[in-house]
């Protein structure tokens, strides 16, 4: 009922997961990401796989060891699907024998794609190929572009409903956490939300506190200047806001 991509940027150290499904709020259950690892749990989802698995990856356990233990302990493993990437880029994948066809997974350096109840293997293949074809795209844009390729290949064979994108950039909190829980074109809506994030949020994010700088940016002056400069640049390029926010009347 789902396909997802789990990836690591070896240059920036970012980790992320994108997911799409004909299943309500898939972005609330499938992706589990931290500053140092990522774990996607799907199909007849067991959320505990993701929660426990992510913690164990962060503690240095090898992905294949973590996965083998989860499979051994879960009587429902044949209906589960999971894939993950460790701090060092190691990958482990599991597609249970009872996952609804088409179901399967594929991987390359620092990226894993898996899906079940799909239109066919091209969903996973095209998602992975598109990711590999666009190494120069910004991390979030690369996820969206790859997921859109999977959708063009057929996506979830039951239709479309929800999507999510979760990225961590070296901090305990996400640098980007976008979700579409119930929509007739969730990936298009996810892209709209990304466009809205680029208007102000991504600029504001640069001022947020970090583990290295607990206070973050205290003086708002440079932040306000950066926001104003971003708005001016967007206006010069003719970029129209895609936000649905309304002013207080």
Q: Which strand order spans the largest sheet, edge to edge or round the barrel?
A: 7-8-1-2-9-10
Domain count, please report it.
Answer: 2
Secondary structure category: alpha+beta
Main sheet attributes: strand count, strand direction, barrel closure? 6 strands, antiparallel
Order of helices and strands: EEEEHHEEEEHHEEHH
Provide the low-confidence segments as ranges: none
Give the DSSP E fraction (strand runs of 2 or more residues): 15-25%
Query: What value does the average pLDDT take?
Result: 97
Give a description of the structure.
- The chain is of the alpha+beta class and 249 residues long.
- It folds into 2 domains: 2-183, 4-Layer Sandwich (Glutamine Phosphoribosylpyrophosphate, subunit 1, domain 1), CATH 3.60.20; 206-236.
- 34% of the residues lie in helices and 23% in strands.
- It contains 6 helices and 10 strands, in the order ββββααββββααββαα.
- The chain has a 6-stranded antiparallel β-sheet, covered by helices on one side.
- Strand 3 (31-33) and strand 4 form a beta hairpin.
- The longest helix is centred in the last third of the chain and has 20 residues, at 186-205.
- The chain is globular, with a radius of gyration of 19 Å.
- 41% of the residues are buried.
């Amino acid at each position: 009922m789902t396909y997802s991509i789990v990836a690591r940027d070896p240059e920036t150290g970012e980790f992320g997961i994108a997911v799409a499904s004909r299943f309500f709020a898939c972005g609330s259950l499938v992706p589990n990401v931290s500053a140092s690892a990522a774990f996607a749990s799907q199909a007849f989802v067991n959320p505990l796989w993701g929660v426990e698995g992510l913690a164990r990856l962060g503690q240095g356990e090898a992905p294949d060891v973590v996965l083998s233990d989860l499979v051994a302990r879960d009587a429902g493993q044949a209906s589960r699907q999971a894939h993950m990437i460790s701090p060092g880029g190691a990958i482990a994948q599991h597609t249970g024998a009872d996952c609804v066809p088409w179901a399967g997974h594929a991987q390359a350096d620092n990226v894993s794609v898996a899906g079940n109840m799909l239109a066919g293997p091209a969903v996973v293949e095209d998602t992975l190929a598109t990711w590999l074809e666009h190494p120069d795209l910004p991390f979030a844009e690369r996820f969206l572009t790859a997921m859109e390729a999977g959708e063009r290949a057929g996506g979830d064979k039951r239709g479309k409903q929800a999507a999510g994108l979760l990225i961590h950039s070296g901090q305990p909190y996400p640098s980007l956490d976008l979700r579409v829980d119930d929509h007739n074109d969730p990936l298009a809506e996810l892209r709209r939300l990304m466009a809205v994030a680029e208007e102000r949020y991504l600029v504001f994010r640069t001022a947020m506190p970090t583990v290295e700088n607990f206070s973050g940016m205290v003086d708002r002056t440079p932040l306000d200047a950066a926001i104003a400069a971003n708005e001016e640049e967007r206006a010069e390029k003719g970029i129209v806001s895609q936000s649905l926010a309304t002013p207080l009347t």
